TrEMBL record:
InterPro entries: Homeodomain-like_sf, HTH-type_Tx_Regulator, HTH_TetR. GO terms for molecular function: DNA binding. Pfam families: TetR_N (PF00440). Residues 23-60 form the HTH tetR-type domain. Keywords: DNA-binding. This is HTH tetR-type domain-containing protein.
Amino acid sequence: MKNANDRRVIRTQHAIKQAFEEMVLADHDGHGITVSQLAAHAGINRKTFYLHYDSIVDLADSYVDDIAQDLIARLGAHTMEEYQNNWELFMHVFDEFFTSNREFYTYVMTSGEYSFLARRVQLELTQFLQAELVSQVHQEDGAATIIANFIVTNMMMMVRLHAAGTTGMDVTQIRDQLMKLTVGGLAGMGLVKDDSPSTSLATN
């Protein structure tokens, strides 16, 4: 394997991922894509593909780190105290990632075909948030695990409901409804500051 920092390696990996994303979004059947088809679409040969990935599944797996680390970096830019003062900020950061990011990310996180990737991303986000609750808010491990799962599950629900289009609501309306439910639950756990903007959501 060539040095991952080699410009040619970076260009080739970009070409492979761009081709994969285009093919998945074109037919919404990523599991039907073969290495030969992908290589032809990316303008490379099969041997070059295998220098970077073991299989199509291995390529799909690489998106777990891409999505999770990007989201974790965005969420980690704020402290837990900032979130406790305004939980809408947490949802805004999460929502912004999916509304401003590539269509492909939203698709793989909401598609049944890629549910295995979505579960792994959700697990990484939950583990990150659980650790933050323990270190910054001094929650016990058990409580932090429950709270982290509750928050991340609600965030993912917002993305899935919007993508499915089954509620008759736009993303802002879905976000507002889930925000009320989320803040209400967090208030019950003592995680909403009394004087924060989120307080009114928990009581309305």
